[in-house]
Amino acid sequence: MLENIWSSIDIYLDHLRFARESSPHTVANYAIDLAQFAEFLGLQGVERPTDVDARVIRSFLREMVGFGYSKATASRKLSAVKSWSAFLRAGGNIEFDHAKGVKGPKLSRSLPRALSREDAARLVEEGPEGDRACRDRAMLELLYGCGLRVAELAPLKWEDMAPLEDRMLRVEGKGEKERLVPFGRCALEALDAWRSVEPPRSPYIFPGSRGGHVTVRTIHRVVTAAAARVGLSDVTPHTLRHSFATHLLEGGASIAVVRELLGHESMLTTQRYLAVSGEHLRVSYQAAHPRAKGEDEHV
User: Fold this and answer.
1) Is there a catalytic annotation at residue 213?
2) Are residues 21 and 143 in the same domain?
3) Smallest Cα–Cα separation from 98: which of 144, 60, 145?
4) Of these residues, 241, 242, 247, 259, which one is catalytic?
């Protein structure tokens, strides 16, 4: 039996790394969430996994929301706790999985925010500035032009899009699942410009300052700074991903194609973008469906 919260978390993280072969990004997120949970338990005087019950887990969620975390973030932290608890129960280290029945905060069904086509173009074309403008333009072109998650963009290598002229990008998404995503002429020109300014000194397209690839935090800063320069607020890398999907649907792409390009597991996730493009869909329906036409258009 595991007597210590921290040691049980270390064993679970090793399970993610070696048994499940989770990505370093996934393991890091679980480590952060479970460390916060362990620190909270310590303040509550809970030191052993067998002493963790539903009451203390709910208290942890209230503490996170009260501290200022969003409900979505608190729900993600609960998922980490549930996965850890289920692992301990499966290994016989706890008798009851008290986390299993705990419900997360009720999430609002807010629609994804998308930029207008004009604002997206201004952000990508006018936002980059200074010594790193070529690099930042290439980042923004790939985020908006390919709908990449920020964690997918950071580790991209030049070999992932070889030959560059084919304009196809191999992306490793969630669960280490690969997908192919095409990119357009604007992204190709931006990548060519970046490569001419910064000849590849690393396998990564966007190398970091200490070796390896650029950090997710750096990409966030690039996006927010570029948005601020063109007068846009509350823009994140995920805003560009939403804009990518919305503009594809408005341009006539099928939801099945958009799902494949985004790397969504479920069609339901992709269908959220239909509401964003609702006006376009209404106009298309009225123009195309025989039962949507006015009386004077009936044969």
Assistant:
1) no
2) no
3) 60
4) 241
